[in-house]
UniProtKB/TrEMBL annotation:
InterPro entries: G_ENGB_dom (IPR030393), GTP-bd (IPR006073), GTP-bd_ribosome_bio_YsxC (IPR019987), P-loop_NTPase (IPR027417), Small_GTP-bd (IPR005225). The gene is engB. The lineage of its organism: Bacteria, Bacillati, Bacillota, Bacilli, Bacillales. Necessary for normal cell division and for the maintenance of normal septation. It comes from Paenibacillus dendrobii. GO terms for cellular component: cytosol. This is Probable GTP-binding protein EngB. Belongs to the TRAFAC class TrmE-Era-EngA-EngB-Septin-like GTPase superfamily. EngB GTPase family. It comes from the Bacteria. One of its GO terms (biological process) is division septum assembly.
């Protein structure tokens, strides 16, 4: 996708604040500091629209980013950060669960994981939860640039086996630093969101028969 326009819309805490324009939504879930904000910025060719933070757990809402008037990225609070209180984690959990189960415009969840390490227990729980409710999922393994190319497949295998991934689920190896996986991920998002080339390319004039 050629991104011509990207904007932050709202930090929402409930359905009454969600956009009402019915554009398809792609949610991003992952543990704190896994690189969700960096992924968003690289995908839309912006340096700091999605703000990265040195303080894990800072995102406390569902952050909506509108892309090309075509779709939304919805950034979830990062999970698995110990310094966030149990009460706050429960609040986030209920907010996210309600969104995932009730949001009709949700098309897919990008489960963002760190390619360098085996999936965490929280990663495994999120994957299993999404599969249980039959929510479309694409596992995106970030930080590929931190691993020598000769070891990529070893780490991909480690991630897939750790999550017990189904063969029907999509997997994209990604780097916000180098752009590895960006085009592949956009192609998958466009397909899931129903944004074919016809949405972006002007049709050629019809030719009259001789």
């Amino acid at each position: 996708m050629k991104v011509k326009q990207a904007e932050f819309v709202i930090s929402a805490v409930g359905p009454d604040q969600y956009p009402v324009d019915a554009l398809p939504e792609i949610a991003l879930a992952g543990r704190s500091n896994v690189g969700k904000s960096s992924l968003i910025n690289r995908m839309i060719n912006r340096k700091n629209l999605a703000r990265t933070s040195s303080t894990p757990g800072k995102t406390q809402h569902l952050n909506y980013y509108r892309i090309n008037e075509d779709l939304y990225f919805v950034d979830f609070p990062g999970y698995g950060y110990a310094k966030v209180s149990k009460t706050q984690r429960q609040v986030w959990g209920k907010m996210i669960e309600r969104y995932l189960l009730e949001r009709e415009t949700l098309r897919m969840v990008l489960l963002i994981v760190d390619l360098r390490h085996p999936p965490t227990k929280d990663d495994e729980m999120m994957y299993d939860w999404l599969k249980h409710y039959e929510i479309p999922i694409c596992v995106v393994a970030t930080k590929a640039d931190k691993i020598p190319k000769s070891r990529w497949q070893k780490h991909v295998k480690q991630m897939k086996e750790g999550l017990l991934m189904r063969k029907t689920d999509s997997f994209v190896m990604y780097s916000s630093e180098t752009g590895v996986g960006k085009d592949e991920l956009w192609a998958h998002i466009e397909s899931i969101a129903g944004l074919g080339q016809e949405d972006h390319i002007q049709p050629e004039p019809e030719q009259t028969a001789e």
